[in-house]
C-alpha cells in the first residue's frame, strides 16, 4: 500500500500586541533556516512603519520577510488578497526547503492561511465604497443589519473597514456566507506567547511613548500630506485614528496618549480572548523561553 505523502510543516507565532512575536519569529528562523511571513493587515502598506510597529531591516538581521510593503495605502488590500499572496509565499518558501514562520497580529488573516477560516471571493466594489465613504459607523451598521442581520450581530460595529467589506459581500452575494474552512496543505504548529495583562499594560504604554519619540505623529502627518485622507487613516486602526484626531485639533496630545493606551489595552484583551478559543496553540509564558520554543519546534519537525 502506497504511503500518503506528509504535509510540509509551517510555524505560526501568536500573542497579543507587544508580546514579542517578532523577536521569537526571527530567533526561530535563524535556528531552523526559516523565512518570516507577516500576517498583518496594516504592514502590507508602504510608508506605515512606526504606527504598525513594522519590523525594521536591522531587526530582521538578514532573515527574509514577506508580505511587507507590498501595497500603496491609497489602495485596498483585502483578506482575499492576503490569502492568495500568503499561499503563494508559503509554497515558494516550502519549495526552496525553507521553513515558513508566520507572525503578526491579524489573527483572522492567520486563520485563513491555516485553513481554519475561508474568505468569500468578492472583488472590491469601488462604486459602492465611494457611496459608503461618508457614512458614520452607526449608519454603516444599520445598512449591514438590513442586508444581513446575522453578520451584523457578530461584527465589530466600530470598525468601518470591516463594516464596508461586509456590506460589499452581502450586496454581492445576498448575505455574508457561513464559514466553511478548507483543509490546509500544511501541518501547523502554533506557538502562543501568554503575557499577563498587568505586564502587557506597562509594555503598551512604554512602546507607545517610544514610537512617539521615533516620529509616529510625523509619519501620520506625512501620509496625510501625500494624499491619504483622514477618513482613510481612521480605517487603519487605533494609532492612525487618534493621531489624526490630534492633528485635526479635536483632542490634545495628552488625551491622545491616554486614549491610545486605553484602547490598545482593550484591543489586546480582545486578542487574548480570540486566541484562547484555539485549543491547538502551544503556550509559552512571557517572556518567551527561546530554548523551550526551539525544542518544541525541533520535536515538531522530526515527528
List the topology elements:
Blueprint: E1 9-14, H1 21-31, E2 34-38, H2 57-60, E3 65-66, H3 79-95, E4 99-103, H4 107-114, H5 126-132, H6 137-147, H7 149-154, H8 160-173, E5 187-194, H9 197-214, H10 216-225, H11 230-235, H12 238-247, H13 253-276, E6 282-285, H14 290-302
Parallel strand pairs: 1-4, 1-5, 2-3, 2-4, 5-6
Helix pairs in contact: 1-14, 3-4, 6-8, 9-13, 10-12, 12-13
Description:
- By secondary structure, this protein is an alpha/beta fold.
- It has 14 helices and 6 strands.
- The chain has 2 domains: 227 residues, Rossmann fold (3-Layer(aba) Sandwich); 59 residues, Histone, subunit A (Orthogonal Bundle), CATH 1.10.20.
- Strands 3-2-4-1-5-6 form a 6-stranded parallel β-sheet, sandwiched between helices.
Give a nutshell description of this structure.
With 303 residues, the chain is α/β, with parallel strands linked by helices. It has 14 helices and 6 strands.
Instruction: Write the CATH homologous superfamily of the largest domain.
Output: P-loop containing nucleotide triphosphate hydrolases
Number-wise, the strands total: 6
CATH topology of the largest domain: Rossmann fold
- For the record, the count of structural domains works out to 2
User: What value does the Rg take, in angstroms?
Assistant: 20 Å
Helix content: 40-55%
Structural class: alpha/beta
> Whole-number average pLDDT?
89
Order of helical and strand elements: EHEHEHEHHHHHEHHHHHEH
What would you say the CATH architecture of the largest domain is?
Answer: 3-Layer(aba) Sandwich
The helix count comes to: 14
Amino acid at each position: 500500500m502506497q504511503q500518503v505523502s506528509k504535509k510540509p510543516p509551517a510555524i505560526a507565532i501568536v500573542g497579543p500586541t507587544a508580546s514579542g512575536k517578532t523577536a521569537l519569529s526571527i530567533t526561530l528562523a535563524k535556528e531552523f533556516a526559516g523565512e518570516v511571513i507577516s500576517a498583518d493587515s496594516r504592514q502590507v502598506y508602504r510608508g506605515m512603519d512606526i504606527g504598525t510597529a513594522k519590523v525594521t531591516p536591522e531587526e530582521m538581521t538578514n532573515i527574509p520577510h514577506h508580505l511587507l510593503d507590498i501595497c500603496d495605502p491609497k489602495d485596498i488590500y483585502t483578506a482575499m488578497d492576503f490569502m492568495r499572496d500568503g499561499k503563494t509565499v508559503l509554497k515558494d518558501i516550502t519549495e526552496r526547503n525553507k521553513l515558513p514562520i508566520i507572525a503578526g497580529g491579524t489573527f483572522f488573516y492567520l486563520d485563513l492561511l491555516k485553513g481554519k477560516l475561508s474568505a468569500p471571493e468578492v472583488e472590491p466594489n469601488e462604486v459602492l465604497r465611494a457611496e459608503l465613504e461618508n457614512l458614520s459607523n452607526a449608519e454603516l451598521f444599520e445598512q449591514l443589519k438590513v442586508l444581513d442581520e446575522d453578520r451584523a450581530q457578530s461584527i465589530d460595529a466600530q470598525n468601518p473597514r470591516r463594516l464596508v467589506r461586509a456590506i460589499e459581500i452581502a450586496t454581492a452575494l445576498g448575505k455574508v456566507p457561513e464559514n466553511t474552512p478548507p483543509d490546509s496543505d500544511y501541518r501547523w504548529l502554533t506557538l502562543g506567547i501568554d503575557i499577563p495583562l498587568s505586564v502587557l499594560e506597562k509594555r503598551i504604554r512604554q512602546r507607545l511613548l517610544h514610537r512617539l519619540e521615533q516620529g509616529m505623529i510625523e509619519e501620520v502627518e506625512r501620509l496625510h500630506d501625500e494624499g491619504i485622507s483622514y477618513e482613510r487613516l481612521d480605517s487603519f486602526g487605533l494609532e492612525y485614528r487618534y493621531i489624526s484626531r490630534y492633528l485635526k485639533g479635536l483632542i490634545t496630545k495628552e488625551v491622545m496618549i491616554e486614549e491610545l493606551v486605553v484602547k490598545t489595552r482593550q484591543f489586546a484583551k480582545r486578542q487574548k480572548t480570540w486566541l484562547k478559543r484555539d485549543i491547538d496553540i502551544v503556550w509559552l509564558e512571557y517572556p518567551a523561553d527561546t530554548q523551550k520554543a526551539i525544542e518544541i519546534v525541533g520535536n515538531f519537525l522530526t515527528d
